[in-house]
Amino acid sequence: MNSDQLEQFKVIAECESLTKAAETLYISQPALSKTLKNLEAELGCKLFYRSRQKLNITKEGRRLLEYADLIITTIDSAQQEFKCLDDNKRIKILGTGYYLPELLDGYFDGQNASLDLQVIPDDLIPNMLINKHADIVIADDYYLRHYGSQGLEKVLLFQEQLLLNIPSDHRLFFREWIPLNEIQGEPLLYIETKADIDSWIKEILKINRCKLNIGLRLDPLLFQQMRKEIQYSYLVSSSTHLFNDNQQDPKAWKKIRVNALYSNRYIYLWYYKKDFKRLAKVIDLVKNNAVKAAADFEYSRTLA
């Protein structure tokens, strides 16, 4: 006797018909009939007797049904308990940046705890963290700046600046910086990727009460193919430098700083102080990868 047999026996008792029970279980009626015969042979008693219209459970069958309910419930409870234990071993990481995989580079090379990694919109971060739906959050402090006194610790990873990427033949190519309101009427290229940058830019536009003029939309592949002919500038995050986003020839393009409220932000790693021991390995790895990315970027600038 095993739990599968008891599950099938329970369905037969509920349906009072082998045909209906087989349909419910998505198995053939002969296979289900064989299971019932094997159970009756093992227990040495009849579990059902047939009437003209249905199967009627016997006294022995009712007793077995009580045990079946208890056994199935116990197995379900055990599975749920051990699933929760496994979930407690998993480290849940939320963030708003496409740079999350790079920050965790190397983590999966060893025998480490499993990770649940999810990119979500900025405005959902506080609720997810405060309600303990995440162990670690990697995001800026725009939405989390009021939660520092609730047992949270934050570690600065890097600074992120909104930039305007300009082709060499563009009239703004020799500028070093530009106010956001000055590019409102400028036709811009929109590359349909990195949704987290989109949410950040949308928040910047909302705060500064600005609108952008999108003159051309391209997916990343088409942009790669057409980049030499493109005359439009486009907005980009400085962290694309840090994490090797080499979508264009650096000699043909120039990035200048965009000045506006919230166009410069700091990306932090957030966690609960009480969980530091359990999360220390991940925290150290993320910090080291952020430092390494920044150092590689500075070195590449000296070679350019």
From TrEMBL:
GO MF entries: DNA-binding transcription factor activity; transcription cis-regulatory region binding
InterPro entries: LysR_HTH_N (IPR000847), LysR_subst-bd (IPR005119), WH-like_DNA-bd_sf (IPR036388), WH_DNA-bd_sf (IPR036390)
Domain HTH lysR-type: 1-58
Assigned keywords, A-Z: DNA-binding, Transcription, Transcription regulation
A Pfam family reported for this protein in Swiss-Prot or TrEMBL: LysR_substrate
Keyword Amino-acid biosynthesis applies: no
PANTHER family on file: HTH-TYPE TRANSCRIPTIONAL REGULATOR (PTHR30126), HTH-TYPE TRANSCRIPTIONAL REGULATOR GLTR (PTHR30126:SF40)
Family: Belongs to the LysR transcriptional regulatory family.
Designated name of the protein: DNA-binding transcriptional LysR family regulator
